[in-house]
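job 3f2a | input accepted
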Amino acid sequence: MALSTASVYPAGAAAAFEIAAELGYDGIEVMVWTDPISQNAGALRALADHHGLDIVSIHAPTLLLTQRVMSADPWGKVDGSIELAREVGAPTVVLHPPFRWQKEYAQGFADGVAEREHDSGIVLAVENMFPWAARGRQVQAYLPHWDPVPQPYDHVTIDLSHTATARSDALQMVRDLDDRLAHIHLADGHLTTLKDDHLVPGRGTQPCAEVLEHVSTSGFGGAVVLEVGTRRRPREREIDLRESLAFARTHLGQAGDPVGDATASGSAS
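job 3f2a | predicted structure (269 res):
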């Protein structure tokens, strides 16, 4: 069970490693953004060694707000993230599908992802997204589509906040993906909003417990990474991250783990 550095935003990667180790997480997903440490392999390795945590994945800077991070070229971002993953020993890179205005990038996206996976040995797990809303209408903001299930990607990330925003059937998506599901972003969300909520699991409408219980017995071999928003509740950040870890361990069948027991006990106190 890993913690995304995005879960402590706007604090940086160093803070994420510290709180993940303190609360008993097993690893870290590094969201690459303007934080210099998130782009520095040496600094990340030092943090991982110091705190005894694995870096399970690198999240490429393919968000709307990171369009100039690492490279202005979209393939440059992917290649830079693959190299960073290699240098820190992370087996997986998470990336979003192209934006609709990145037409040239989108045309060769699936083939480019497959080629880079083959050449690098790194899993490139394309994340599910959602339609945008503009003037009361849904807008297709991603190419070839926000839904990765029918796409030819070998590996996919399911984000359980994005499924809420898209009004997707999260559990059915997991079942349909079967062994193509390589990575999970654990979060929650409400169907009644157009926001990407990234709530603590159990506080929204998504079948977070059911998804975790399903993958715990399905042969899933990827990482489960908590990616929640704590920016608006900085004083409750530790409580929220502790509660999320206890939730995950319970529904992954790890409640008997010594760390899981300590975490659940701390959450109840």
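job 3f2a | The mean pLDDT is 93.
job 3f2a | closed
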